Every structure is written in C-alpha cells, then in structure tokens.
Amino acid sequence: MNAKTGWPLALLLVTPFDPSLFSHNSCLSNAFYGNYQQGVTTLSVLRPEPACLDTWTAQTLAPSVSIAEATREIQQLVWLEEQAVDESLTSQTRSFRHEFDAFLDTLSTRPWHSDGPLDQVVLSDAHGRDGYEVLYRTSKAALLSVSHNTARIIDTLVPRFWKSTLLPTSPVPFQPVKSSALGHAEDVLAKLKFDPVIASIVGNISISQMRNDIRFLTGEDGKSGIVSRHSFAPGALTAASWLKTRFEETGATCKLKPFLPGFAPNVVCRYAGVVNTTSTVLFSAHYDSRGSFGSTRAPGANDDGSGTVALLSIARTIRRKGIKFYSNVELVAFAGEEQGLLGSKAYARELRDANANLTLMVQADMLAYRDPGEPRQLGLPDLIGSPIVTQLVANVSAIYSPELHVGFTPACCSDHQSFHEQGFPATQVFERAGPIKDPMYHNSGDLSNRVGYDFMQLKAIAKVQFATLLHTAGYELPSEH
Ligand SMILES: *[C@@H]1O[C@H](CO)[C@@H](O)[C@H](O)[C@H]1NC(C)=O
Ligand SMILES: *[C@@H]1O[C@H](CO)[C@@H](O)[C@H](O)[C@H]1NC(C)=O
Ligand SMILES: *[C@@H]1O[C@H](CO)[C@@H](O)[C@H](O)[C@H]1NC(C)=O
Ligand SMILES: *[C@@H]1O[C@H](CO)[C@@H](O)[C@H](O)[C@H]1NC(C)=O
Ligand SMILES: [Zn+2]
Questions:
Q1: What residue ranges do the domains of the chain occupy?
Q2: pLDDT tens for residues 94-153?
Q3: Does the beta carbon of 189 sit less than 6 angstroms from any atom of ligand 1?
Q4: Were both Cys, which of 66, 77, 314, 369 would link to 438 (CB 3.0–4.6 Å)?
Q5: CA geometry: angle at 391 spanning 390 and 393, to 5°?
Q6: Whether this model's pTM surpasses 0.85
C-alpha cells in the first residue's frame, strides 16, 4: 500500500490465458502485458486501473486468478520461468526454493564484476532505491518488479535453468493469429509432395562449412577473438558484422538493426523475390548467447550458434545453386533473445506496424545436441505457434529428412513467440522431441568440439528448414546452357 493514499501503486493480474478476456471487457484489453509460461500453462499478465478491476465481479474472475499489489514504483517487470529441462540435468541442481532464494540474494547484495558498461551497475538491497519486489511466485514461475539497472543484467543472475523476460513498459494490443494469415501455409501443406530438385538442393548443405562457421562464432578456431556473444559483449558485435558480410556474399541485402541501447543489433538479411509481391517468409535464429554464472565465456555453440550456422548454410547453398525466389525471403539473426526475446519483439512489432505480409516464420534454436543414446530428432513446439505451420514442418521433415524422429518438445519460448504474439504464422525447430537435455545448456562449455554435438543432426534439421523455405517461397534455378 502507498502510505499516503492507502492504494497500492499498481495492481497486477496474473490469470490463465483466455481470449474472452479481451472481447468482453475493453478496460482489460487495454491492460495486457503479454502471455508467459508457467510449466505447460500459459498465463496473461494484466495491469488494470483499480476502477477497471472494480467492474469485475467475483464470477467473471477465474478461480485461479492472482491479484498482486505493487507497493513500490514499478520500473521494470520481469517474468521468470523454469525451462523444460530433462531430469538428468535438474537432478544436479538444488530445490526451487533454495535456488530462487539464492537468486534474490544476488539481486540484493550483488558482489558482481564484469567488463564494459556493466561494472557501473550497483544494486542496493531490497529496501533501497534499486531493490526489487516479488509480485507473484509459484514453483515454476515468478513476476518481479526490478530497477532498470537490474533488468539489463538479470539474465546473468537467474538460476541456470530459468529464463527471464522483460515485460513491455506499456500495454500491448492482443493480436491473435487470424485464419487469413494461415492461408498460404495451409495451401503449401495441402499441395506438399516430394520435389527431387528440392531434395538435391537441400542435400548440398555443407557440413564442413558449418563446422568452420561455428568454430568462428564460438572462438574455437582462435581467429575470431570471440569470447562471448552475450548481447552486451564485444564479441556479439564482431559476430554481427561477420554474419552481415557472410550473408551479403550470398546475394542478400543485410542491415544491422539496433533495437535497444547497449544491445548488439539484429542482423536482418533479405533476398527480394523475382516477382513483385508483398509475400515474405522469414527464417531465423538468435546469435546471442549465455554462459555460466560469473564466467565471461559464452561460446553458445549449440544455443544458438547451431541455429545461426544452419541459416548461414542455407544462405551459402542459395548462392552456390543460384536460387531465386518467388516470395521475398528474410534470414534473420536476432540478439537480445536471452534477455527475453527483445530483438525479435522489436522486429515483429516493426513488421506488424508496417502491415507486413509474413506468410511463414520459423525460428531455429538449439539444433545440434543429441544424447549419444538417442536417435536423431526434431522437436516442434506443442504450446507456442500455429499448429498448421508446425504440421507443415513435420510433413516436410518426413519427406526430406526421414531419419529424424519428429515429436513435440515442451522447451519453449524462443523468438517465434514474438511473431506469434504479433499475429504472424510461426513455429520453431529444436533438437529433441522432449525437454532440453544438453548438459552444456547455458554453460561456458557449450562448444562444438564435444561429445553429443552432432553435425549430422544439425544438417538434417537445416535441410528441413531449407525445404520448408523452398516449398513456401517458391523458387527457380538458373537455366542450364
Ligand atoms: C501430414 O503427414 C501426415 C502423416 O504422414 C499425414 O497423415 C497427413 O495427411 C499430412 N498432412 C497433409 C495436409 O498432407
Ligand atoms: C554442392 O554442389 C556443388 C556444385 O554446385 C558441388 O561442387 C559440391 O561438392 C556440393 N556439395 C555437397 C556437400 O553436396
Ligand atoms: C509492385 O506492385 C505494386 C502494387 O501493385 C505497385 O504499386 C508497384 O509499382 C509495383 N512495383 C514494381 C517495381 O513493379
Ligand atoms: C500475401 O501473400 C500471399 C501469397 O503468399 C497472397 O496470396 C496474399 O494476397 C498477400 N496478401 C496481401 C494482403 O497482399
Ligand atoms: Zn536459445
């Protein structure tokens, strides 16, 4: 409560996602701060005016709704959620309560050292100007109010298997995926059949080139000087300009697009269609990375160097084969993913504001790790994304990479979520039909030269991305002379 007025400074509603929240009550639809995961449950965060809440009767609120009262001024809201990781990994870690308490301790005491702009950041305790407030907390998720300074670095403080997402600073309109937006994906799926030319094109993806590319991005080759691709690290800028040059060599037009001060930019590359059309397909990955707590090394060979080199392998093959498209094609490497999908949120909003005709979006995040005891796999999202787009990718996989065992994964919430939230048809490809099992997940040991880093699986999934792109965009090859 605010001592002067007796009112809390803000009210926050955390409630299971229900589209009728937006259709029946306009004061709530103007209070939407996005959907977030708590295990398999999707929750909406709303920040209504107290008067808006008054118009709600006890019956209209779901029994599972939580109402939090912020007693301090809110600078930045942060959602925290436990990632879906395999038991073989979580059994090594402490209990949630212990882990979360230790995390809150790091927020309040903060004996933290780092390079660059971060070392000016000083946090005080929970009662100081820079403190935090816990607004909602269960065993799988939490909503915090933190200072701007803490928000910038919170991804480096959260427990390893937790993910932090910064909420928007003002309400966002709820944008469902309209059925008309799915029309093109539906058409492509209905007509999908084996194309021997596509099979030969996607088979041309080069593993040795992917191996060289990943070793540059991780710094394993000793040539790039990259230590970390964390969004604030100098290595992320090295990676961004290197990626821009490599994609441009393949005939794309690329832009480095900054989205927030201090963050490395998004790398947005485009092949214009050979016909005059608004239709655009977008394939993406995130090139930023996260390392172990307290370490400056963040090589991110799997998360998400693997998705990034898959995109690059597609671009290099587009060049080798001289492919032209009937749609516009964008290949995008995002930054700010580890801080809460920030780069992709900015770009998805930009495309929504421009009324872009995005007919398909596929994010690749973690493609290369395979437990040596398991077959090669392709994991697809069961919660976030458009089911028809996910089905299209699954059916393409069965045709062009039949060796992959395809199934759903609960590992969620990569950059495709940003596009799904803006009403675009989107899905994700992942390395496992189950939770995360990579022992080097969010670890400074995430290198490409290790047991389980499987270039054959990486190529098999890149083939699925590329074949989906070719079927969806339409293509032509240079005529033979
Ligand atoms: C996708 O593949 C499944 C399994 O082979 C098949 O049953 C289904 O008909 C396919 N969907 C379409 C639209 O072709
Ligand atoms: C890809 O195709 C080129 C010719 O266009 C060929 O020289 C090269 O060996 C092929 N690579 C693979 C991995 O198939
Ligand atoms: C492409 O089509 C649009 C809309 O039909 C038209 O305004 C524009 O001039 C065309 N551009 C070119 C290069 O033909
Ligand atoms: C978007 O592109 C599709 C082709 O992929 C086309 O059928 C549709 O008319 C386009 N929509 C608009 C609004 O231009
Ligand atoms: Zn990732």
A1: 10-57+64-166, 179-480
A2: 666 778 878 887 776 543 333 333 322 233 334 344 578 889 988 889 999 998 888 888
A3: yes
A4: 369
A5: 65
A6: yes
